[in-house]
Amino acid sequence: MVIWGALTGAAPAEEEGRRIGDPVRGAEVFGQCAACHEVGPGARHRVGPHLNGIFGRKAARFDDFRYSDGIRRAGRDGLTWDLEHLDAYLTNPKTLVSGTRMNFRGLKDRRDRDDVLAYLRQFSDNPSDIPEAAPTARKVEVELPPEVLAIMGDPDYGEYLSSECTTCHQIDGDAEGIPAIIGWPEEDFVLAMHAYRRKIRPHPVMQMMAGRLSDEEIAALAAYFGALE
């Protein structure tokens, strides 16, 4: 069951979308970046440029920092650090920008990337205060009644149901061309499955699979896969 999609783009206003992630946890994950980058009051360039105001900033923006040729080329080609491109860069810098000097293997866990981005977002313009700033909440794909989101999934039942999912997805976290299914926040999993069930997300196999599941079964799968690491 392929429960993964590209970033859905910015919502018209911050409050109309789902928050990127948890900035408190993101501050902890950012420790992996802190050897090269500073962010926050008084941040300066180090091995990498400071990350204040990174959202909406053109690549290779600072004249007083020596960027790699790859980043300079990307900037000339129009690369801007919006939510989608920051997420791609954090996943694997060298995939997005060939020739970058950033010696970082990337954050493979989507939650880690979301939380780091939420943390960094605090040091860029706030759309609620600056109307012309680009909002960065992710659009909510499907609205669900509170009682559906409140269903407490049974992870044991989810494990029982999971055999069809694991014919394609590996529960050890490896992808090998098929996105990982474990470690999703439960609400994200539930929203994605309901989006497939309503044919909002385009994937015929996933639409068929999700269409056979009840609300309780979706919640059970979310609880089971979300607890795996």
Concise summary:
The chain is mainly α. It is 37% helix and 3% strand.
- Sheet with most strands: 2 strands, antiparallel
Overall average pLDDT: 84
What would the principal axes of the Cα set say about the shape? elongated
Task: Give the strand tally.
Answer: 4
**N-to-C CA distance:** 18 Å
Helical proportion, percent range: 25-40%
Identify the strand order in the major beta sheet: 1-4
Give the helices and strands as they follow along the chain: EHEHEHHHEHHHHH
The number of helical segments is: 10
Q: Rounded to an integer, what's the Rg over CA atoms?
A: 19 Å
Which structural class do the helices and strands define?
Answer: mainly alpha
| Share in β-strands | under 5%
Give the uncertain stretches in residue-range form: 1-16
